[in-house]
Amino acid sequence: MVFCLRRRDGLPGLSLSIAFTLVWIGLIVVLPLTALVLRPWQDGGGVMLRALHDTRMYAALRVSFGCAALAAAIDVPLGLLLAWALVRARLPGRRAIDALIDLPFALPTAVTGITLATLYGPTGWIGALLARAGIRVAYTPAGIVVALMFVGLPFIVRAVEPVLRGLPPELEEAGLLLGASPVQNFRRVILPPLLPPLVAGFSLAFARCIGEYGSVIFIAGNQPFHSEIAPLLIVVRLQEYDYEGATAIALILLLSALVCMTGVAALRRRVSRGLVARGAA
Amino acid sequence: MGEPSRRGNAVLVAATYLTVLAVLVLPVVLVMVEALRAGLGAAWRSLLDPDALSAIRLTLLVTLVATIVNTAGGIMAAWLVTKYRFRGRGVLVALIELPISVSPVIAGLVWLLLFGRQGWWGDWLDRHHIQIAFATPGIVLATLFVTFPYVARTLMPFMEQQGREAEEAAFLLGAGFWRTLWRVTLPDARWALLSGILLTTARAIGEFGAVSVVSGHIPGLTETMPLHIETLYNGYQTVAAFTMAALLALIAMATVLLRSFLEHDFRKGSS
Predict the structure, then answer these.
(1) CATH number of the domain residue B163 falls in
(2) Tens of pLDDT, residues B44-77
(3) Nearest-CA neighbor of A49 among A251, A256, A248, A253?
(4) A204: nearest CA in chain B?
(5) Scanning A105, A181, A206, B65, which has its CA 20 to 30 A from the CA of A76?
(6) Where are the transmembrane segments (chain A) (predicted)?
(7) Which residue of chain B comes nearest to A86, CA vs CA?
(8) Does residue B15 lie within any of the structural domains?
(9) Taking the model in full, what pTM does it have?
(10) Does B120 lie at the interface with A, CB-CB under 8 angstroms?
């Protein structure tokens, strides 16, 4: 990496903070991730090719990606509702609700896992109700979706909230005054500016959900080809001492998450540029 | 100011309460109810079990190390990235944020690839009788990786806003780097710093996936609190499992509330 400094940078501590930061990032992030990227090619690419022919891996990836997409999609309207209420409604207890929304992010995943498994289990508060209606959630892919919904919700709310705060409420009123029906108003006036943050929130939730482990494994049932998520298969492969198989799945998961994050970053840049341009006009 | 109609507002508020109750509050209530199912005494006794105490001790140790290292690193990185302009700055920020998008299981796996028996340095470590994987050092490394970005990430936007006039003035008045950092920059950023440290601590205490991969799951030896919850839960010791879960849930709720107050403060302070 080349550090080209401008001349006016006269603050002290530059070399010290460079050294400290590089050692910190190098040892904790770059070194282990280098091992992850290089490992599968170490004994030639054959190992990687064999790992890529593993049908159980594809099944697990399908479960992970499918459930993550579904959970994030269900979270979009829920997150929009919560963000809308936080910004626009006269909401008693707003501060408490605002804080609670971050709870899934702070609650240890193992706690989330055993709690949701109990709540939605056959004798749990919600599970018993659903069982009477003939619906099984725990120990099926539906259980995975429920757990991932919990984990993904804050990402949507926190992505939409700041954008919503920046939109003048007059916009919506103007639409209604000009004779739009509430549905038209929502589709034509409210939704367009919120679409980029909703897509960003969806991608962030999705990226987080495909890698999620602790909150899922207790409720999932973990049957191969049916309700086994990709992160769990990594753990299984490791227990079988199949490091190559584990690393192949890990690389695919990591790349997918990175594609999502890069997309979000691009989206963010576009949105902020758009807002700046509009503000200047 | 656009006031929603009274009926519209009531519907919106009701729907919000319902969602928050069903999705966020109900699980927390369930943890507490399950923990206290056999009474407060039984819950308390389950925490005094030697394996439980050992898990609490290990969690505290790991959290302490991870928080100190990542707070120090986070402060230095935030200083570097926000007080200077240089090429490669974007790459540095991306690398700092990278661990957020890495699955916890992968955050554990990467250390096995280095220090596990089949890892790059596994043989060498074996010959010298140094154990990193499936021991406390491995658990610390996995936690370091998972909690890596939070202090830097909370500090960076705040310190970017600070600019560097105050630091330049301190420097012209003869203060060195440490003095400037300690007396000028950090006092101003203290709420953001505290918020980042809180998040780091909470994530370190609760980390499960990464630690699970490198731990080896030996009760009383290499189990942290979340891992011990899994062992108890799978052994049908429901009260003990949920008591420890309740302890972690209380810590999580305290963290979330404190951070919300802090953020309120530094949002108000900066505007």
Answers:
(1) 1.10.3720.10
(2) 999 999 999 999 999 999 999 999 999 999 999 9
(3) A248
(4) B101
(5) A181
(6) 16-38, 59-85, 105-130, 137-157, 246-267
(7) B16
(8) no
(9) 0.91
(10) yes
